[in-house]
Amino acid sequence: MAASIDLLAQKGFPPGILNSLKKDGITHLLDPQVEAVIGFDLLGSEDLLIALPTSCGKTLIGELAGVGTALRGRRAVFSVPLKAIAREKYETFERRYSEYGLRVRLATGEFTEHLKDLSQGSFDIAVVIHEKLKHLILQNPNFLSGIGVVVLDELQGVSEENRGPNLEFLLGLLKNHRPRVRRVGLAGKLSSTDPLVEDFEGRVLSTHSRPVDLHEGIVLSNDSLAETALSEYGLGLPIGEGKICIYRSHNSQLVDATRLPVSEFGDEEEGTFLNLAAGLAQAGETVLVFLSTRREAEQAALFLSESTSLRNQPPTEEEIESIRETKLASALRNGVAYHHADCSAHTRSLVEEWFRSGQVRILCCTSTLAQGVNLPAHNVLIHPYVWNRHGLQGELTLLEESIVRNMAGRAGRLGLEEGQGRALLVAHSEREWDLYRSLYWTDFIQPNRPSLLLGNIESHLLAGIANGFSTEEDLSGFLSSLLSHRFIEGTAALRQSIEEALEEAEALGLAHCMASRGLHEKHWTLSSLGRVIALRGLSFETGRFLSDWLDRIGQDLPEPLTLLYAICSCGETQLWTWPRENNPQIRAAWCEEIRDRLGDEALETLGDRETLDNSLSRRLEDAAKMAMALEMWSEGESLENIQSEVTGISEGVLQSAGEGARWLLDSLGDIWRVRGNPSEGAEEIARLACSVGTGLPAWAILWNTIPSELLDRDSKLKLARVMSSPQFLTNPEAMSLVRHEIPAADLKKVQTFLGGGPTL
Question: Of 19, 288, 478, 677, whose CB neighbour count within 10 A is largest?
Answer without folding.
Answer: 288
